[in-house]
Amino acid sequence: MTTTAPLDAARRSGAASDWPWTEALSVVTRVSGVMGLALDTVFRTSLLPELPASRDRERARLLHAIAGELCAMHALRVRVTGALPAPPFVIVANHVSYLDPIALASLTPCTAIAKQEIGGWPIIGERARDLGVLLVDRQRPASGARVLRSALRALCHGVPVLNFPEGSTTRGEEVLPFRKGIFGLARIAGVPIVPAAITYDAPELCWAGDDTFVPHYLRFSSRREASAHITFGPPLGDHGGAADLAERARAVILDLLSL
Questions:
Q1: Could you tell me if 138 and 144 are in contact, meaning their C-beta atoms sit under 8 angstroms apart?
Q2: Residues 6+ apart with CB under 8 A from 214
Q3: Contact 84, 232 (CB under 8 A)
Q4: How far is residue 84's CA from residue 92's CA, in Å, rounded to a whole number?
Q5: Low-confidence ranges of the chain (pLDDT < 70)
Q6: Where in the numbering of this chain does the Phospholipid/glycerol acyltransferase domain appear (predicted)?
Q7: What backbone torsions phi and psi does residue 65 show, to the nearest 5 degrees?
């Protein structure tokens, strides 16, 4: 009688011993790719036009292109349900990972609002500034006002704005109350709010709590592939005040997430 059990066991053993090398190669390849893309971004942003309106629009296109390149580099597939309206508009989304703005920006040219701490991240922080990401220090009202003025200028130039009004990440089991500033800005600019719900195919892609960036990113970059699912709700008009608009947007996202 012939049995394949020893051969199967050997194959399993070989696969187990080979897989860490595959992971390591994936990490090295992707980290090298990110560093190369960061250097390329320095060159590409140096070619941006000087006029503010043209510069805002071209930076938004460049952020969109680079986000798409990052998704491809990390085999992050972004599946979409729903559609975006004609720009300009404000996208507001639940926030579960540093991957969220990359996944969303890969879908449309835009500028993004992010926390000030990102500006201190190795490689990423300076390139985020180059790409027009608006960094806000939530402890300083003057910083928030400056960022909202810059976001208003972008909207006036026809550039969509991406924001995560929870102000912090969660593990996807809840949606924190929304900060109101971006909703007041949308009313002033006369543009719609587009609610977006984002989920991932693996809970470990969430980045929240005590997670630190570098170890989490290395684990993410060791994966063969990953998948994000973004669902856009219907655009919301400015009926009522900013607080009402924030509550309506949050309710839509909760419904899209079935929470």
A1: yes
A2: none
A3: yes
A4: 12
A5: 1-19
A6: 89-201
A7: -65, -45
Written as six digits, the tokens of 45 are 């942003």
Reading the block at residue 106, the tokens are 């890969």
Going by C-alpha positions, the residue among 225, 62, 230, 231 that lies closest to residue 132 is 62
Domains, the chain, ranges and CATH? 5-256 (3.40.1130)
Q: Name 93's bridge partners.
A: 196
The CB density around residue 183, as the number of other CB atoms within 10 Å, is: 27
Tokens representing residue 177 in the block: 């109350």
Name the residue with tokens 């053993």.
Answer: 13
CB 236 within 8 A of CB 193: yes
Answer for the pair 113, 153: CB distance below 8 angstroms, yes or no: no
- What does the radius of gyration of the chain's CA atoms come to, in whole angstroms? 20
> Distance between CA 119 and CA 52 in Å, rounded?
22
Task: Tell me the C-alpha distance between 183 and 256, whole Å.
Answer: 19
**pLDDT value of residue 208:** 87
- DSSP secondary structure string for all residues of the chain: ----HHHHHHHHHHHHHHHHHHHHHHHHHHHHHHHHHHHHHHHHHHTS-SSHHHHHHHHHHHHHHHHHHHHHHTTEEEEEES---SSS-EEEE----THHHHHHHTTS--EEEEEGGGGGSTTHHHHHHHTT-EEE-TT-HHHHHHHHHHHHHHHHTT--EEE-TTSS---SS--PPPPSHHHHHHHHHT--EEEEEEEESSGGG---TT--HHHHHHHHHTSS-EEEEEEE---B---S-HHHHHHHHHHHHHHHTT-
